[in-house]
Amino acid sequence: MRVCRPLPAEHEQTERVLRIARECSELLKQSPPDTFLGRKTQDAPPKEEADGDGG
Length: 55
Hints:
Layout: H1 8-29
């Protein structure tokens, strides 16, 4: 039976992937950014009613 041993480059790649996974995990723990979507910051200006006399 053959035994395959990881190469040093594979250790580096594994460490890099684990570091990225830790960073992603920390980002997912943060609250979502405020995008202002759906937020009502002020009321819409009132619509002017058209005159019935044709002006």
